[in-house]
Amino acid sequence: MPIASFPGPFHLARLLETVTSALLEATVININPPDGVPAERWHHSMARIAKKRPYLLTNHLAAIRAGYLEPGTSCAVGFPTGAGKSITSQLKIHVALLRNLKVVFLAPTHALVDQTARDLRAAFPNDYALNLRRSL
By CB neighbour count within 10 A (0-12 exposed, 13-18 middle, 19+ buried), where does 3 fall? Predict the structure, then answer.
């Protein structure tokens, strides 16, 4: 009697298992608080961010693993359009604000300053008094 075997369901299950572990590793809520940041406030902020952007890209994870969010680490963020410069900078700004520090951001055009200010107001709606202004 011939026996039929269908590898499709098993293969699909293995793929889903692999994707699940990769997704769990890339979640915003699984980012550990940087040094000097109160864990409870950090996790509250990350939970709020995760509602709009639950996962990070590999370039974000690589930057975080390299110490990007740690105090005293400075950098210039340069990713292609759509690669996540905004979320990367917002995470860094979260660290500074949660440590009660001030943040200065620079942008090359007024339009980009306006867009960034709008994004920051949306990212930090009630937690921080943002004094966002343009300097000519």
Answer: exposed
Q: Cα separation of 132 and 104, whole Å?
A: 9
Q: Which pLDDT does position 129 carry in this prediction?
A: 53
The sign one gets for the Cα dihedral 36, 97, 63, 123 is: positive
pLDDT(74) > 90: no
- The residues near 132 (Cβ < 8 Å, ≥ 6 apart) are 117, 120, 121
Q: How high is the mean pLDDT of the chain?
A: 81
Angstrom CA distances, 121 to 2, 6, 59, 90, 131, stand at 66, 53, 24, 11, 10
Structure tokens at 100: 């009660």
